Amino acid sequence: METTRRSLLPEGDRLPATAGPRGGAAARLALATAAALFASGLFHLGVFAVAGGPWDGPVSWRKPATFGLSFGLTLAALTWVTSYVRTSARTRAALLGLLAADSVLEVAGITLQAWRKVPSHLDMETPFDSAVSMTLAFGGGLLVVILTWFAAAAFRRPPSGPAGMALAVRAGFAILLVALASGAAMIARGVVLTRTGHQLAAYDSTAPLKPLHAVSLHAVLVLPALAWLLARTRLSAPARARTVAAAAAGYALAVLAAAVWAAVSY
């Protein structure tokens, strides 16, 4: 049935063999992990609704809720999107496994500190808190390595998929790199301030970059999803490609606006 459906699609619109939830045990495990992380985020939204407390600030139920939701959504998106990236199945499986484990590490550390009612990042008050902060920083560095590798692979060879998908995947990864850079900048600036005895200033220093980080984080899902949805319309392939290009340009402008806001806020 699947082979017949593929053969009816135009050559440029045929889906990769590993598209969607397929792609072996690693992809299935990554999707299951993503679902668990998303469920954790929803659970902590419920905890916030019951327990109350501030939404902003370094100690808040917002952090396990939003990080669980965001990591769950991002891991699921990357599991799907990387099926269009031309790389070996073994390499993709290994990187997805690392990505899933790292996502659990990040969300678990943030959740642990939320229940302990202490900050999860930039907290050097005790040896244990320092260990958690450094572990989260290491996990963030590993994320940068994994996602940069996938981004490089996407630009090294054109991703497969329907009209506009190659541009959507490449633009999504390029914008995702902005999210990674802004996240690394927040951690680096905060660590410097913490090490120099400005703990409260370290927490406040991340605020201007948070909108940029949030806006740029999910382009890797939004743009490929648009290309996938357009492939199921009656639009011609050139029209679909132009629509994806316009969406990518619009998303890039939104990221630029967030970057300008961050620059003038410092």
UniProtKB/TrEMBL annotation:
Q: Where is this region: Disordered?
A: 1-20
Enumerate the transmembrane spans: 29-52, 64-81, 93-115, 135-155, 167-192, 212-231, 243-264
At the top level of its lineage, which domain of life is listed? Bacteria
Has keyword Methyltransferase?
no
Q: Does the keyword Transmembrane helix apply?
A: yes
Question: Keywords of this protein's UniProt record, alphabetized?
Answer: Membrane, Transmembrane, Transmembrane helix
Recorded protein name is Uncharacterized protein
Native organism: Streptomyces crystallinus
**What high-level taxonomic lineage is stated for the organism?**
Bacteria, Bacillati, Actinomycetota, Actinomycetes, Kitasatosporales
